[in-house]
Design brief:
This protein is of the alpha/beta class. The chain is 29% helix and 20% strand. The chain is globular, with a radius of gyration of 23 Å. The structure holds flavin-adenine dinucleotide. The site of flavin-adenine dinucleotide has 40 residues, from helix 2, strand 10, helix 9 and helix 16.
Length: 575
């Protein structure tokens, strides 16, 4: 087995899945495609049927508003629905395949600067993501409140939206003292990792001084616990299936798929009055009686705003775009990143037979504070227990995008033993990237500069976190499991192993992106506390771009809660 062969296998399987996707086998689950003609009028037009877009459109349709979703992609297919197939979804028929500009260092260990994929499918990135379901902690939402100058975005207030959207299936958690933090009637089914292989690792983390908790999200507590996933009864739950399927015959809900929004149209009073989109080569303009709601995600929403005249004045003028509102659109790109760290154990790797209804590698999530009296994590670890080496090679080379030689080296060092694979994330990165227009063609990818470690403090912080985390090797329980850190790359060998210089080199080379991007149209500077775009009327953004800072360890669940709240705000402010 080697990485080249594994990548070839992925390409073959992906071709088969793209053919299956054309059959639209799950089409019966979703609303039929609407017949939309030039000049048609809706109460609300939602641009992008992704994670947030499906929530908002469903709530508006339920509230009796005639609502149109304009979605570029098709319906989800079998590889979107079955959790075990997630490895095949990057760079696939259901993603946009964005890449970033060269940042000068990531390419040392990676095939290219960065794979920044997003869902190109109804349900959006929630239909291609890794399904980790968590809420972050109170400090993350305090930062929303500060950015928006509105305390109502706080953690306590957001809990009702988490509960409203969640349907937790795990009876152990529900019966525990954490049960009260969870929802049981919501649209997003959630299950907990329960494979017994995790138990030994949880014990070992406990032995290493980390709290082990049954439920890692409800109270925003520190410690280690098995992951929650947005999976229910063996099937991924994203917002298309969770929110649109139950109301698929609602006459207020209209969807046009395969439709690329190219411009938001404003009248002379800077009021958004319609949207132009292209379907099957034909340009169609639709009108909004009440509002246009942009939910195209953290790369495409800023692109569309800029193409429509909302963005940094100098950049727009440089492209001969008339400026309607001069705002720092695209300027605050943020993401949770950190190095991938691999350990082998003395347990023989013993892969289970493939089961498409569950993720291949069980996950444990850790929230760690360096100062043990703190209530907030400094870093989050996403820990995979890996028995299946073909999965490992796919994750390493395809999902994280590391060079084949790096993945082959880890494979050989791991010596067919069970591995602990940790992605360590800095929860408060200070670095920022940028999304800019590449051209005035809406079909062009925007330019994305990832900005990883552009603020030196982030690298210093991550080095401290790695040094802290790698100490687990020295504790008796992990020692008895033979835990051993694997030097995944030889590109740092000029530095003494364990020195600050070594870890700095390792962190840069082995950086892994979570693809939890946010902040490109943040609350406070591009949208106000009600998510209205500043300086214009009747236009909101509701997607990951409005989230001003990363939420520790995930973004899907926080965004669903933000979209639930945004729906309330929109309905209450109905003109
Ligand atoms: C590979 C991957 C793994 C991830 N893993 C996790 C995880 O495990 N846990 C977690 O919490 N988060 C995860 N995330 C992040 C999370 O899923 C996303 O941040 C979140 O779903 C983004 O939602 P959104 O509504 O902002 O955008 P999206 O869900 O991306 O929705 C945007 C929608 O708009 C459509 N669109 C874009 N432009 C146009 C246009 N011009 N016209 C019409 N339609 C358009 C797109 O096709 C898409 O459907 C992951 C993301 C990816 C990509």
């Amino acid at each position: 087995m080697n990485t080249t062969a594994q990548l070839a296998q992925i390409a073959n399987v992906q071709s088969a899945f793209s053919v299956l996707a054309m059959l639209n086998m799950y089409g019966y689950l979703y609303p039929e495609d609407a017949k939309v003609s030039d000049g048609d009028t809706y109460d609300y037009i939602v641009i992008g049927g992704g994670t947030a877009g499906c929530v908002v459109a469903a709530r508006l349709a339920e509230a009796n508003f005639k609502t149109l979703i304009i979605e570029a992609g098709p319906n989800p297919s079998i590889d979107n629905n079955l959790p075990g197939l997630v490895t095949y979804l990057i760079n696939s028929h259901s993603t946009w395949n964005f890449t970033t500009l060269d940042d000068g260092f990531t390419e040392k260990c990676h095939q290219q600067a960065g794979v920044y994929d997003r869902g190109y499918v109804l349900g959006g990135s929630g239909a291609v993501d890794y399904m980790i379901y968590s809420r972050g902690n109170p400090r993350d939402y305090e930062r929303f409140s500060i950015a928006s100058n509105d305390p109502s975005w706080n953690w306590t207030n957001m809990q009702k939206y988490f509960k409203k959207s969640e349907k937790l299936y795990d009876t152990r958690v529900l019966k525990s003292r954490y049960g009260k933090y969870h929802g049981t009637e919501g649209n997003i089914g959630v299950t907990k990792e329960n494979r017994s292989v995790c138990d030994e690792y949880l014990e070992a983390y406990k032995n290493a001084g980390e709290p082990v908790v049954l439920d890692g999200i409800g109270a925003g507590i520190l410690g280690y616990s098995t992951a929650l996933y947005h999976i229910a009864e063996g099937v991924r739950t994203e917002t298309a299936t969770g929110y649109l399927t139950p109301i698929k015959d609602n006459p207020n809900l209209h969807i046009t798929r395969g439709s690329m929004a190219t411009k938001i149209i404003f009248d002379d009073n800077k009021t958004a009055v319609g949207v132009e989109f292209v379907k099957n080569g034909q340009t169609i303009t639709v009108k909004a009686r009440k509002e246009v709601i942009l939910t195209a995600g953290p790369f495409k929403s800023p692109q569309l705003l800029m193409l429509s005249g909302i963005g940094p004045k100098d950049d727009l003028e440089g492209m001969n775009i008339d400026v309607i509102s001069n705002l720092p659109v695209g300027r605050n790109l943020q993401n949770s990143i950190g190095p991938m760290m691999c350990f082998k154990t003395n347990r023989e790797a013993n892969p289970e037979p493939f089961d498409a209804h569950q993720l291949v590698a069980p996950m444990i999530i850790g929230n760690t504070a360096l100062n043990k009296s703190s209530h907030h994590p400094d870093y989050v670890t996403v820990n995979f227990i890996v028995d299946d080496y073909s999965y490992f090679l796919s994750f390493c080379a395809f999902t994280i995008g590391l060079e084949n030689s790096v993945c082959d080296r880890i494979y050989s060092l791991a010596d067919n033993k069970q591995m602990l694979l940790t992605v360590l994330l800095n929860v408060i990165p200070k670095s920022q990237g940028v999304v800019k227009l590449r051209s005035t063609d809406p079909f062009d990818q925007p330019q994305i500069f990832n900005g990883y470690y552009s603020n030196d403090e982030d690298l210093d912080a991550v080095v401290e976190y790695m040094k802290d985390y790698v100490r687990i090797e020295g504790f008796s329980k992990f020692q008895s499991m033979g835990l051993e850190f694997l030097k995944a790359t030889d590109k740092c060998d000029q530095f003494e192993f364990g020195s600050t210089e070594y870890w700095r080199c390792y962190a840069l080379c082995m950086v892994a992106s979570t693809i939890f991007h946010c902040g490109t149209c943040p609350m406070g500077t591009v949208v106000d506390n009600q998510l209205n775009v500043i300086g214009v009327h009747r236009l909101r953004v509701v997607d990951a771009s409005v989230i001003p800072n990363p939420v520790s360890g995930s973004i899907f669940a926080p965004l669903v809660a933000v979209a639930e709240r945004a729906s309330d705000l929109i309905i209450k402010s109905t003109h």
